[in-house]
Design a protein that fits this description.
By secondary structure, this protein is of the alpha/beta class. It has 11 helices and 8 strands. The two termini are 13 Å apart.
Length: 260
């Protein structure tokens, strides 16, 4: 059974794609089969896996707009146990065209179900916007991971995310859960420490225990086309994303046990 995780935040620059990429690698280290679905027209996740978005045919945009099977859009990556459905600027057209279609918020969910994908985890890298594509991702997901910096504007943007979660639960996906992941944390920065405490007080168990601290190697790893666990396997960033994967797997097991 696929466990679908959307990684999304309206605010850009919060390590959304880095988190998706790194999490796929740390889950693969645990021998899980992982499918990445790039839903961002910028195609940064696609680039990180070594593919050139402009040269690709059969993308996530083709699946959403033209009914291509997701199975026909899957490409291998250089990471063991990790495949990808790539993206390119066709996703811009999807953002504009989808709302004109009947039941448009459920197109991605139906595509995942029809494809009968044999993966343990499906990770959806969403665009930095709360439009039709992100709505599709949340409607298709078991869990929403929201990367956010411990800074005022990032924390403020969570209000819109919470409003979208309520809408999705009411109209499309009542079982949608969420967890907030603090990224780019500077433990020496008093403002970061203060906002982290405020987020903990506000969201409680809705916050991952794991935090991702600032690490220049994390910025470098997608550029060289390797996840942090391959680029710098002993770095702080590698260990923190391994901790995140462990926390996530425990959460999924507990959730599945409760609903069994």
């Amino acid at each position: 059974m696929n466990y679908v995780i959307a990684v999304s935040n309206e605010k850009g620059g919060v390590a959304k794609t880095t988190t998706t990429f790194s999490l796929s690698a740390t889950l693969s280290e645990k021998d899980f089969q992982v499918l990445l679905i790039d839903l961002d027209p910028q195609g940064n996740l696609t680039l990180a896996t070594g593919l050139e978005p402009k040269e690709i045919r059969n993308t996530s945009g083709d699946a959403l707009l033209d009914g291509f099977s997701l199975s026909d859009c899957i490409r291998k990556t250089n990471i063991k146990n990790v495949d990808i459905v790539p993206a390119n600027n066709r996703m811009d057209a999807a953002e504009q065209s989808l709302p004109a279609r009947l039941n448009y918020a459920l197109i991605l969910r139906e595509a995942i179900q029809k494809a009968h994908l044999a993966y343990d985890f499906i990770l959806l890298d969403c665009p930095p916007a709360l439009g039709a594509v992100t709505l599709n991702a949340l409607s298709a997901s078991n869990l929403l991971v929201i990367p956010t910096q411990a800074e005022y504007f990032s924390a403020y943007a969570l209000r819109d995310m919470m409003a979208l979660i309520r809408k999705v639960r009411q109209e499309y996906n009542p079982q949608l859960a969420y967890r907030i992941l603090i990224t780019l944390l500077d433990q020496r920065n008093r403002t970061h420490r203060t906002i982290r405490q405020q987020l903990q007080q506000t969201f409680g168990i809705g916050l991952f225990d794991t935090v991702i601290e600032i690490d220049t190697r994390l910025r470098e790893s997608p550029i060289v086309g390797l996840p942090i666990t391959q680029y710098r396997p002993n770095s702080r960033g590698s260990q923190q994303y391994r901790n995140l994967a462990q926390e996530l797997v425990q959460y999924v097991h507990q959730t599945n046990h409760q609903t069994a």
